[in-house]
Design a protein that fits this description.
The complex is a heterodimer of chains A (422) and B (290). Chain A folds into two domains: 186 residues, D-Maltodextrin-Binding Protein, domain 2, CATH 3.40.190.10; 190 residues, D-Maltodextrin-Binding Protein, domain 2 (3-Layer(aba) Sandwich). In chain A, 45% of the residues lie in helices and 12% in strands. By secondary structure, chain A is of the alpha+beta class. Chain B has 290 residues and is an all-alpha fold. Chain B has a single domain, classed as MetI-like (MetI-like fold, Orthogonal Bundle), CATH 1.10.3720.10. Chain B contains 13 helices and no strands. In chain B, helix 3 runs parallel beside helix 7, helix 5 packs across helix 7 and helix 10 runs antiparallel to helix 13. The longest helix of chain B is centred in the N-terminal third of the chain and has 33 residues. The termini of chain B are far apart. The relative contact order of chain B is 0.14. The chains are: A alpha+beta (422), B mainly alpha (290).
């Protein structure tokens, strides 16, 4: 009998011990003051081997600038980075300085795992562009939780060969959804439905651009089931019914649109400032025939940043390192290797970004750089991957006509609210 | 002379037992506990009683996922129980070059499910080989929406699962067929039984236990289907997410920084219950038949 009681006790202890980890305890913020020396770790995301020399050069420069410091550089593979950071955060092994896009940073901010760099570094707001810094602020939480690193936005890319062959003028590119749909109709008629102009479903960012508020101002609930949103989805539904979009839009993710463009099946896509460079590898014959233009509506702002672990043992060195890596000079050098854009105010007048070398890739870079002045983060940082997926699914039902736009939007809002609150 | 200490077997079994406890027993117990909480990957959570199960009952996607998983199982079960047996009977014969056919049927088993699903995706796409051929031959005028229509996508994934599973179950049947005594076939033939009669009266009873094993394996793996549907639908779960399986739903809610571990665990428990059902039914059926 004693054995059963012992077994039961063990089971109770086991069950009590598993399941719920304790909430992060509020720890005092490490002091930012003090000498910059000692060991400090830096984690980047998929920069090896392509940018090994650049990053190592930046690190060497830092160690030279601050004698007595030693940087341990960790580079994580592209795949599974969020899981890696999650494991590190849960296990208390987050490196001192870590590359986190804003949506990765949000849950860590809420758990008090990241250092408020705005408090620790008073010059932050004056030296980095406001839109980028805002991406590291969270409604209801004081401070900013990352040094904005590099920025990017979307540019329109058009396959001029397909446009010309199908009765469209590359000089008169569409600048609104209505113009896009009208030209898509011409292209479909001329090509006999073999190629398409449009191949992407609307996303939350499109609703923001149509003036639809995605969330309430306090970030407590979703509000994108408005008549304007219904009207937008209805336009896509009608276009789909007319055969102006391939059926793939019902299941393809955003990347599917670029894939079709690369194949030469679709005449329009959107991509970052360096899209033509990567296209030149995938489809070298198509790359020279592509022309860029400014994104329709407000361009989206994509931000990368460096956050600092609140548990760092060496806050002075971590702050100095984050500031060093994201400095105007180091970002400018990085931007010369790849079409990304610096987040520092001082870089705004750099002629490298504002003058094209005459190539279509150079034009795209200039368009992207100019777009950044008005670019905004179009999706609130509270929107998680699961929410995005559920929204896509509902929008897909609306576009296919299986649900009305109103039903799909109501269902998407209800799902997002449920995930936000639970 | 040998000494047997009482702890010797425990020491020998300890590495495997620790492994089993850490990676199977502990997570299983943890899942049960988490199902009654609103736990997140960071910051713990609170006990919420049956809230996750109430939420599951009102989740329209769960109904779709259950229907998909059950249809998947109901179609795969007879096909993957009978077809591999018939193929095993064919390739069991000792003919010249039969090894080639055995290998050919087994090849899909060796290939990764994701790679195979990607290849099938290219074949079944609107601009893929199959639609290209069908349009070229004038069989259809517009592409068949294999990957963009709810039921066609589900049945494409079922076809892929059946094609990929044939070889695996064929090997299991081949070893079972070796145990069916040849004299029984000869005696039946002498008594005037034709090949069909011998199949039902000699072969099937001879491999009945193996058929039960195969049925259980097929039904469990069909209910836990993930890769085929995930890759064929580009991870979206088909148009409107209506092709999600239970495992895809668990993945949707359980992963990432903001994963809803509580709800995902409740769905895992539902999957366990759903999986146990056909297993117990098949075992009961077998006991009755015996």
């Amino acid at each position: 009998m004693r054995r059963y009681w012992a077994g039961l006790a063990l089971l109770v202890v086991t069950i009590a011990g598993c399941g719920l980890g304790g909430a992060a305890e509020e720890e005092p913020a490490p002091s930012a003051g003090g000498a910059v020396k000692g060991k400090v770790s830096l984690q980047t995301w998929a920069l090896k081997p392509k940018f090994t020399d650049y990053v190592q050069g930046v690190i060497d420069g830092f160690e030279k600038r601050y004698p007595g410091t030693e940087v341990e550089w960790l580079d994580q593979p592209a795949e599974g980075y969020s899981d890696k950071v999650l494991t590190q955060a849960a296990g208390g092994t987050l490196p001192d300085v870590v590359n986190l896009p804003p949506d990765f940073a949000v849950p860590l901010i809420r758990q008090g795992i990241l250092l408020d760099v705005a408090q620790a570094d008073q010059k932050l707001a004056a030296e980095y562009v406001p839109g980028a810094l805002d991406a590291y602020r969270y409604p209801g939480v004081q401070g900013a939780y990352g040094y904005p690193w590099y920025l990017n936005t979307d540019v329109n890319y058009w396959n001029t060969e397909l446009l010309k062959k199908n009765g469209l003028d590359p000089e008169k590119l569409p600048a609104s959804l209505d113009e896009l749909i009208a030209q898509a109709r011409t292209l479909k008629e001329k090509s006999g439905g073999k190629v398409f102009l449009m191949s992407r479903r609307p996303e939350l960012g499109d609703l923001t651009n149509a003036g639809v508020p995605i969330m309430s101002p306090d970030g407590a609930r979703f509000t994108f089931n408005t008549p304007e949103a219904v009207a937008l989805l209805d336009k896509y539904r009608d276009a789909f019914k007319e055969g102006l979009l391939p059926r793939d839009v019902l299941t393809d993710t955003y990347a599917g649109n670029a894939k079709l463009f690369n194949e030469g099946t679709v005449a329009w896509t959107t991509g970052g400032g360096n899209y033509i460079t990567s296209l030149a590898t995938d489809n070298p014959t198509l790359a020279p025939k592509v022309v860029p233009s400014k994104a329709m509506g407000t361009p989206p702002l994509y931000v990368q940043g460096l956050s600092i672990s609140k548990a760092t043992k060496n806050a002075p060195a971590a702050l100095a390192l984050a500031r060093w890596v994201t400095s105007a000079e180091n970002q400018a050098a990085f931007a010369r290797l790849v079409n990304i854009f610096p987040s520092t105010v001082a870089s705004a007048n750099d002629p490298f970004f504002s003058k094209s070398d005459g190539s279509n890739s150079g034009d795209a870079k200039v368009i992207a750089f100019e777009s950044l002045a008005e670019a905004k983060v179009l999706e609130p940082v509270q929107v998680t991957e699961a929410m995005k997926k559920l929204v896509r699914q509902q929008f897909s039902l609306a576009v296919s006509g299986e649900a009305t736009s109103r039903e799909a939007l109501d269902a998407a809002v209800a799902k997002c609210d449920e995930l936000l609150k639970s | 002379m040998t000494h047997h200490r009482w702890f010797t077997p425990w020491v020998l079994v300890a590495p495997a037992a620790v492994w089993l406890f850490v990676f199977s027993v502990w997570p299983a117990i943890n899942t049960v506990v988490l199902a009654f909480t609103n736990a997140k990957p960071l910051g713990g959570g609170h006990f919420t009683g049956l809230a996750n199960f109430e939420r599951a009952l009102s989740d329209a996607q769960l109904v779709d996922a259950l229907v998909n998983s059950i249809v998947f199982m109901l179609v795969c079960l007879p096909l993957l129980t009978m077809l591999p047996l018939l193929i095993a009977i064919l390739v069991e014969k000792k003919l010249p070059g039969i090894t080639f056919f055995r290998t050919a049927f087994y090849t899909p088993v060796v290939a990764s499910a994701v790679v195979v699903a990607l290849i099938w995706g290219w074949l079944l796409d609107d601009r893929g080989l199959i639609n290209g051929l069908a349009q070229g031959l004038g069989v259809v005028t517009t592409p068949v929406p294999f990957l963009t229509e709810r039921w066609l996508l589900l049945f494409s994934a079922i076809s892929l699962t059946v094609w990929k599973g044939l070889g695996y179950y064929m090997i299991i049947y081949l070893s079972a067929l070796g145990n069916v005594r040849r004299e029984l076939h000869e005696a039946a033939a002498v008594d005037g039984a034709g090949p069909v009669r011998r199949f039902w009266s000699v072969t099937v009873p001879g491999v009945r236990n193996t058929m039960l094993l195969v049925s259980v394996l097929v039904s469990v793996s069909a209910l836990r289907v993930f890769s085929e549907l995930y890759v064929l639908s580009n991870g979206t779960g088909g148009p409107g997410g209506r092709d999600m399986s239970l495992v895809m739903l668990i993945q949707l809610y359980g992963r990432g920084f903001t994963g809803h571990l509580g709800y995902a665990s409740a769905l895992s428990l539902l999957l366990l219950v759903v999986t146990l059902g056909p297993m117990l039914a098949l075992l009961r059926l077998n006991r009755k038949a015996a």
